[in-house]
Amino acid sequence: MALAAGFCDVSLDATAVTVNGVKTFKTVAAMQRTALGWRQAGLRIGFVPTMGFLHDGHMSLVREARRRVGATGRVVLSIYVNPTQFAPTEDLAKYPRDLKRDYALCREEGVDAVFLPSDAAMYPGKAGGLYSTYVVEERLTQGMEGVSRPTHFRGVTTVVAKLFNCVLPDVAVFGAKDWQQAAVIRRMSTDLNFPLKVIVAPTRREPDGLAMSSRNTYLGPEERSQALVLSESIAACRRAVAKGPAPAADLKKAVARLVKTRPAARLDYVEFFHPETLEPTREVRRGTQMALAVFVGKTRLIDNGRL
Predict the structure, then answer these.
(1) CATH number of 214-306: 3.40.50.880, 3.40.190.10, 1.20.120.140, 3.30.1300.10?
(2) 58 has catalytic annotation
(3) Of 55, 58, 152, 274, which is the active-site residue?
(4) Residue 216 DSSP code
(5) pLDDT tens digit string along 60-88?
(6) Using CA atoms, how far apart are residues 187 and 36, in angstroms rounded to an integer?
(7) pTM of the model
(8) Could you tell me the residue ranges of all domains in the chain?
């Protein structure tokens, strides 16, 4: 991801550059060296991993990270579009990017540093076929996104583990919109003894209820309107469960019918499950977690909510 001419000016720090007013680390060694220095100085590190094209949902995670580490701590945000979590048919090449806007938001929100690694830095030797180590979680990844995107979570857990080793955070903040992903990261962090706390912050939504997502930019005006069927499906299931427990099969049929009322929308999956174990439930009651994925035009969107 090349920076526009004139956008980047090099600071006196040999391990970093200053981009639009924000200290930036592009190599693993520089990021690790700086993070170790912070920790040795007694500074807490909060971390927000992103793929860029930032919006207020990301900034809410930054604010939570700041709250957790305090004014004297350091908040690091990574921008890295991770190729290993995309299947060959997915949108890696066209995933939205706007580094200038990203940096403006980071500066306004008081991000202390951006970690902006290259593919070569994150996967050394991969281009030559030498990279061969991946992190795999084998239970929580089996349903929902794990079925629709079979190679996705191996890429997610691998890159997040690597980012944790680069940034060395005390606290890492993820958004609740990717509920399954957050559960997988929590499990990985516990199983592999990462010395950090994983925080899951609430989903940020547009005023009309659509969950904030970088992929929303793909939607045309009519598709944008029809995309509200995700949050409307969650609201409909909440109303149903408020009257008493309901069979999951019946609620799935109701969601499928609702999605079909939107000409541009196509249901990928809808599931009802325990919020921590992700075990599907046959009877849905208050406290059950719901998640769904819907194609709106060519854009695949996900959402979830506690019923």
Answers:
(1) 3.30.1300.10
(2) yes
(3) 58
(4) G
(5) 999 999 999 999 999 999 999 999 999 99
(6) 25
(7) 0.92
(8) 8-201, 214-306
